[in-house]
Queue: 2 jobs
Job 1
Amino acid sequence: MRLEVKDIAGKNCITQEDGNALYQKIHPELKAGRPVELSFKEVRVFASPFFNAGVGQLLRDIPASVLNQLLKVTDLPPNGIETLKKVIENSRQFYSDEKNQRAVAESLKQEE
Amino acid sequence: MQNAVSVIGGLVKLAEHHGNQIELAWPTIRSEVARNLARNGLMEFLGKPALKVSKSAVPFRHDTALVEDDLVSYLYDSWIGKGRVHLSDALKGAIVGKACEIYINAFDHGHSPVGVFTSGEHYRQKKLLKLCVVDFGVGIPDNVRGHVKNANKSGAESMQWAFRRGNSTKKTEGIARGLGLDILREFVKVNNGTLEIFSHDGQAVIDKAQHFTSRSAIFPGTLVNITFSCDESYYRFASETTGKPLFS
């Protein structure tokens, strides 16, 4: 699947709500082992809450090694890359923390 | 001056919110100050018929909710835009994105009863862009003290805790947070800017160094004052994603 992020979040990828909308689209695909390409063409502004929810959250239940194989990010300008890298690093740490893992397991249970 | 515009506008609205009526003694305001207040639209905001907002001034702004497209347009067009500052599109996007982190923090954590107030300034000679964002909410130290094991933290310690990457007082929905202040800090440090935050009894000043202070004079909310250099040669970005996998 190839997605234009602009079609989901508009030109400004800032809020957690927009990030969640992206997550809802790509998580089922990635969870099923299908590749996803995210194009950030024409997106101009990025903030961490968007990436926290849209991309970082994928690490809740999909291993980094799988995401490296399945998720391709294209057309992301340097300021977006910087923010995304910080978000991924922070999310990895967050989901590897035992206390957070328990909270995440609880929230996944509630979602089912 | 720039800070005073956000604070005065906000304080008047806060007083009104608490059922008080504020009348400013306009004749006592010096003419050059009054001219400035007219130019940036504060006078009109306070109910005084005023001159049109000057094309060269950054207009005063009041937000009661985060409307992202509207806010981004303001930051692009009314703050860094209109040809005042010659920056690449990438750098404009980076600066606006960092400014958005301030607003997200204000709306996510501040709970200001009267919203968020903004003023800005551009110093052409010094090549500096300034933005002052003020809310009258619970403040960073109180939010931090409400978090596990933080109850006895001083104003300075609370501010330091809030700046630590990954620390957030909001940990709902199983999503990692706590990057906004760290991202702002890193950006101003690398790019020759400054960041000052006054929040209740805490203060943080970030430039090449960083200082966290407890204050006895309490600001009843959070004031964020950020300065960016308009000199493109200061800015550095991480290179492309090529090579290392994204999730390594």
Note: The longest strand of chain B covers residues 210-229.
Job 2
Amino acid sequence: MHIPDGFINLPTSLGAATVAAGGVGASLRQVGRTLRDRAIPLAGLAAAFVFVLQMLNFPVAAGTSGHVLGGVLAAVLLGPWIAVVVVTVVMVIQALVFADGGVSALGLNVVNMALVTVLVGWLVFRGISLLLPRTGTSIVIATMVASWASVVAASVAFVMEYALGGGGQVSVATVFRAMVGVHAFIGIGEGLIAGLVVSAVLAARPDLVYGAAIVGVKGAQRARVGRATIASFVLAGVTAAVLLLVVVAPHAASSPDGLERVATDQGIAGTAVDSATAGSPFADYGISGIENQPLGTILAGLAGIVITFLIGGLVMRWSSRRPSREEVRS
Amino acid sequence: MTVVHPHVVFVHGVSPVHRLPGREKLVALLVFIVAVVATPAHQVWAFAAYGAVVAIAGSLARLSPGLVSRRLSVGLPFLLFAFALPFVGGGERVQMGSLSLSVAGAWAAWAILAKGVLCLGASVILTATTPVSEILRGLSALRVPGVLVGIAGFMVRYLDIIVSEARRMRVAMLARGHRSRWIWHARPVAGSAGLLFVRAHERGERVLDAMTARGYGGGIPEALGESSAPARWLETEALPVLACLVCIGALVVERGVL
């Protein structure tokens, strides 16, 4: 999800950079209030962990793999303000040292993957942990749901940025359906992995889980994450994703939604017209020949997701080849 | 769970570009990228000029074109999005065979490809010719908050250790018959990631203890805050300034002022 240079125009990138600077600055002040400078080595090691976490490939299906953004995971383990700072540091180093993610798009990436994921995720985490009993299992469930919400929120943020400064006059509704639809499914993986990581840390060092301390979970209480928990989370995630595709997306397509409204108000909407694939079998995300509109939408959405994962899997397999001999030597 | 070693990024070498100070190189990269991103897509000649600028910088840095092009592959996922744009873009359409393509979408795809590849090329040249410590020193000289640079410094310093830790865990899992193929194989991977966090934290505590024992009382360690080498602005900024002139030219032509 790292946006490269040249993908979003310069004014939007600069605006995002201003927002990012403000958000990170506020987080730094909060961190300074709660922690002393002594904690810099600890935060550095946590940043190294988040960096490596984003390099780990988690299996998805048939040997394809994905990686996590880790914003909510970092927030639950370290606290939201340090998480913003740590994820920002990771993104700066990725852009400047590993050429991963654009330099002019750094502000956009920090907004999407450090500010939006952590803040939205943390609010959801706190909200859910208020509703559930104060146990380790609740912490894990809250982490799962919050991670899912954070990925969806980050994709919504991307759609807004595209509406403000993307090229090609693609209708905002199309981008919304593609990005948010796919990420509602990717978020299930993110939630599952973040939850399992938190449950592993709870088992080994419950005192290290900031979220558990804030919520007031009694120490040394093991989280029970059985098949039932995982299955119900996946089921809930798929339901939520399908609902997003079926209920929210057609609404976004039929009437000018908030994003297009913003774009029109800014005078940059271009002409949001119907998608070019209007004649394709997946036109308007309904499969032609199926009269039942919601069913057709679900099938089209699922087909789109399968195709996306197949392409993604092929790209992943091709790009994650072993480093060449020359690179190993140097 | 493949893990690429981070230190393969810097390519040891002796070249005029390797010798330039970090702060000036960071500014040069930023100026070049802003110029490229601000250029209107229709001015194709401008992008050819930027390509020449990147090629000159690359050859001055004595980097092999093969290495640079391999590093460009990190930008692939978004380039895929670019290929979809001519089909889903709006506005005027042209008929090409049986395909109906959006003109605006095609220009947007071209802009994403050209700008993405050029900026990535420039970034790769910076990362391949500048040691991480020099980049951090440059950031510090550019007044990036000390806490951020300090955290980044510790992160980079201990990244190797955490990466090797992750590798050892992976080897241990493979030796015990772990297969990483379907999503239900993710549980042991997540478990080892949790353990990795615990180990990273415990390592951090040991580092902090050792530093405290040697008199560390907080703040940013000195080595990271060192002043940068004497400024060599003219030498470093020549190519980015050229790019800026090209950008201004492209904007003037686009607006039809001449």
Note: Chain A has a mean pLDDT of 77.
